[in-house]
Amino acid sequence: MPFGVIGALLFLNVYAPQSLLPVLAREFGVSSAQVGTVIGSTTLAMALFAPFAGLIADALGRRRVTLGAFALLLLPSLLATQAQTLSALNLARFAQGLLIPLVMVAVSAYLAEEAPPARFAQLLTAYVTGTIVGGFAGRLLSGVAEHAGNWHLAFWLLLLTNLLGVGAALVGMPREKHFIPQRRPREAGRILVNHLRNPALLLTCAVGFLILFVLVSVFNTVTLRLAAPPYSLGSGPIGLIFAVYLLGAVVTPVTAPALARRGPLWALQAAVLTSLAGLCLTLLTSLPLLIAGLAVAACGVFLAQAAALSAVQSSIQGGRSLANGLYNFAYYGGASVASVLAGAAYDWRGWNAVAALCMVAMLGAGWVGQRGWRNSAA
């Protein structure tokens, strides 16, 4: 499906360097906390720009913004291929992060306005599934590229996939028939103030922050653990281990009926218990059990994310684009903090410190959700 392809090509950009972190740490001679900024620079830019992306898409048009963002993504990809320092690479990655939310917001709004009602859920699910596949494929392609040559090749591949993104948007997004430009900053400001006075929405944003904090903490630092003895895995095998990420494409639709029936609080509680069980498994040395733990922990995070997205919609009456922008600000903000804090924890006491940090964060998400989502319980 075109929208699944667009989602996959977009999210190739977000976490692609994650499987390269051990290589980049060695090449640039930096600590785990410093090399984590390769991911954090992108998610920080995504967090900062997410609230404004909806305003731009509302003013200029969904198709135009999607095409323009994919075309502009070619430039930071090209800059990354030439990066010789960590600062130069982070600058290119930050620029990528400013452009990615434009496509995220524009595609969702395009489907809401242009898709036939009978096909909306199907097309949106295809897009979300595509983003999950893209998150895995980016990590895999980068690992394989480094294994075959050098890490710069990974960003040449991203340049190519963003060019394909332009083509996918041209083919898969016909010109809008129902788009009406909205250029009323005062109205947007009023809606934003109302959202910032909504405790349920703000608590849901806090849950989102903690959810992605856990996911990025785990997958940033597990690459460093797997590259070190006793595993000593290269970038290619590490990239393959990210296949556990694909479970999100299964967990999200499978748990949707239970989420709809029992509510987001129940789903969050189940997610916390699932992630805690997975994190406990990762404390073991056995590689198969470690991978199983990663898979179980990831399933819990994906279930928590589905619960949080549901809670966002139930906590508001209007201004949904801005509400989604605020949630994404918190969500990707969690990733930015995790990129540095988890690396510092790993440098301090290794994987056990990272696992403990993630357990505390998941328990915190459950506690915050309990406070904010009581009225959503079935």
From TrEMBL:
<keyword id="KW-0812">Transmembrane</keyword>
<feature type="transmembrane region" description="Helical">
    <location>
        <begin position="266"/>
        <end position="284"/>
    </location>
</feature>
<dbReference type="GO" id="GO:0022857">
    <property type="term" value="F:transmembrane transporter activity"/>
</dbReference>
<dbReference type="Pfam" id="PF07690">
    <property type="entry name" value="MFS_1"/>
</dbReference>
<dbReference type="InterPro" id="IPR011701">
    <property type="entry name" value="MFS"/>
</dbReference>
<feature type="transmembrane region" description="Helical">
    <location>
        <begin position="35"/>
        <end position="57"/>
    </location>
</feature>
<dbReference type="GO" id="GO:0005886">
    <property type="term" value="C:plasma membrane"/>
</dbReference>
<protein>
    <submittedName>
        <fullName>MFS transporter</fullName>
    </submittedName>
</protein>
<feature type="transmembrane region" description="Helical">
    <location>
        <begin position="351"/>
        <end position="369"/>
    </location>
</feature>
<dbReference type="InterPro" id="IPR036259">
    <property type="entry name" value="MFS_trans_sf"/>
</dbReference>
<keyword id="KW-1003">Cell membrane</keyword>
<feature type="transmembrane region" description="Helical">
    <location>
        <begin position="324"/>
        <end position="345"/>
    </location>
</feature>
<comment type="similarity">
    <text>Belongs to the major facilitator superfamily.</text>
</comment>
<feature type="domain" description="Major facilitator superfamily (MFS) profile">
    <location>
        <begin position="1"/>
        <end position="378"/>
    </location>
</feature>
<feature type="transmembrane region" description="Helical">
    <location>
        <begin position="64"/>
        <end position="82"/>
    </location>
</feature>
<feature type="transmembrane region" description="Helical">
    <location>
        <begin position="94"/>
        <end position="112"/>
    </location>
</feature>
<feature type="transmembrane region" description="Helical">
    <location>
        <begin position="124"/>
        <end position="141"/>
    </location>
</feature>
<feature type="transmembrane region" description="Helical">
    <location>
        <begin position="290"/>
        <end position="312"/>
    </location>
</feature>
<feature type="transmembrane region" description="Helical">
    <location>
        <begin position="153"/>
        <end position="173"/>
    </location>
</feature>
<dbReference type="InterPro" id="IPR020846">
    <property type="entry name" value="MFS_dom"/>
</dbReference>
<feature type="transmembrane region" description="Helical">
    <location>
        <begin position="239"/>
        <end position="259"/>
    </location>
</feature>
<keyword id="KW-0472">Membrane</keyword>
<keyword id="KW-0813">Transport</keyword>
<feature type="transmembrane region" description="Helical">
    <location>
        <begin position="200"/>
        <end position="219"/>
    </location>
</feature>
<dbReference type="InterPro" id="IPR005829">
    <property type="entry name" value="Sugar_transporter_CS"/>
</dbReference>
<keyword id="KW-1133">Transmembrane helix</keyword>
